[in-house]
Amino acid sequence: MEWLAFIAMFAGGLIILGAGGECLVRGAAQLARQLGVSALVVGLTIVAFGTSAPEIAVSLQAAQQGHDDLAVGNVVGSCIMNILIVLAIAALVRPLRVSRNVIRTDAPVMLFFIACFMLFAIDEHTIHRWQGIFFVIGLAVYMLYTYNEARRQPKIVEQEYEQELRVVPRRRLTNLLAVVIGIAGLVKGAELIRDGAVGMATLLGVSERIIGLTIVALGTSLPELATCIVAARHHQPDIAVGNVIGSNIFNVLAVIGITASFFPLDVNPQVVYLDGPVMLGVAVLVIPALRTGREVSRQEGAVFLAIFATYLAWMLYTR
After folding, report:
1. Please, is 312 exposed, middle or buried when counting C-beta atoms within 10 Å of its C-beta (0-12, 13-18, 19+)?
2. CB neighbourhood size of 310 (10 A)
3. CATH number of the domain within which 298 lies
4. HSE (CB half, 13 Å, CA atoms) of 38?
5. Contact 93, 232 (CB under 8 A)
6. pLDDT of residue 95
7. Residues forming beta bridges with residue 126, ordered by sequence position
């Protein structure tokens, strides 16, 4: 019955992690607005970081305890799943129109930094502290560029911010308490996910790399999946596609960057030579899919799902 305990621990961690992230984002966003920060800035900083908070918390917890395979697998698996599962399912719900900015800027930025990750990992099978700092600086530059672009159409960003958070006026102390509870939830949830994942890997006889690439990555990608499906159903394809591409950029720049800045990450050779190339290949593959008619069609979504099924079978076979 020990495996049930680990599954319960992992599932409970996901619930606490999700609730903590939601609490942190809403509390911090409303607190910032009360302090006079514009919705544009809040939407592009607090909300953007908040959606990556679960992955950051899980990878930091894992790396701190020396479970680098779990920390790196979480990011690589999330990047693969965001395109091959999240984007694919959203496209099956409704074909996704793509904005020019995503095609011209965001997708190439994603591809560039994923390629940087691969180059760093191949070099010494390690993401060093200076390389983590490089990613964090890259994140700051990307955020600054995004802010300058958003200033040209501030009302669109503000409308999306108001719609997404459904702001309800609350006292500053209440929002501050929400931030504290959210951070505590992220820490405890990530700890439970880490311990549950390590326990399941031990009992099942599979590597932490496999668990990180699959179960943990899927768990931390669920918010993106929910957001994309809702956006697709409500005829907001730009949000769906932008959410996936932006999440992958944050996975590399924020999750790997922040984690490696504190704890240099050893990268499993199988990640370097098997999973990493799949992540890079998927990033390359999605660009022509975005460019063809500026739309991700249902057929392309089905192809992405088939590719993921093939990758999953191959990964389990070569484990």
Report:
1. middle
2. 12
3. 1.20.1420.30
4. 11
5. yes
6. 79
7. 266
Residue whose tokens read 């929002």:
175
The string of pLDDT tens digits covering residues 181-206 is: 877 877 787 778 778 777 777 777 77
- The dihedral region occupied by 284, where left means phi > 0, alpha psi between -120 and 50, and beta the remainder, is alpha
Collect the ranges in the chain with pLDDT lower than 50.
none
Cα-to-chain-centroid distance, residue 133 = 19
Helix (H) or strand (E) holding 266: strand 265-266
Are the beta carbons of 46 and 25 closer than 8 angstroms? yes
Tokens of 49: 């970081």
3-state SS, residue 38: coil
List helix spans (H) across 35-171.
Answer: 39-44, 46-64, 68-81, 88-93, 100-101, 107-124, 129-150, 154-165
Domain count, the chain: 1
Locate all alpha helices (DSSP H) within 205-275, ordered by sequence.
208-211, 217-233, 237-250, 257-262, 269-270
- The residue assigned the tokens 């739309």 is 295
Question: 199: how many CB neighbours lie within 10 A of its CB?
Answer: 18
195 to each of 1, 65, 150, 162, 318, how far by Cα in Å? 16, 10, 40, 36, 25
Give the global pTM: 0.82
DSSP assignment letter at 142 = H
Cα 165 to its chain centre, rounded Å, is 19
> CB within 8 A of 5, min separation 6: which ones?
199
Q: Which domain holds residue 151?
A: 2-317
Query: Tokens 């994140």, residue?
Result: 139
What is the per-residue pLDDT for 231?
67
Report yes or no: 289 and 296 within 8 Å, Cβ to Cβ. Answer: yes
- pLDDT tens per residue, range 143-169: 888 777 767 665 555 555 555 555 556
User: Number of C-alpha atoms within 13 angstroms, CB side, residue 201?
Assistant: 22
